[in-house]
Known about the structure:
Layout: H1 3-23, H2 28-48, H3 59-62
Helix pairs in contact: 1-2
Transmembrane segments: 32-49
Keywords: Membrane, Transmembrane, Transmembrane helix
Amino acid sequence: MKRQTLAFIALVITILYGAGFAAFDTSQAYAALGGAIVAISWIAVGVFGRDDARGTNDPAERHPRT
């Protein structure tokens, strides 16, 4: 998946997590679970995100195997 799409999804998750502290009476369980979900979403950006191959000089990167 494109890195920009995954980064946008992770950003939305992070913003909703932060807004949840203001909107709801939070507990330590919410903080721990939400923090783990935010961390996993940003890790997924790095692991599963694919950069756009425009501008590369390596032909293998321009036409990746899918």
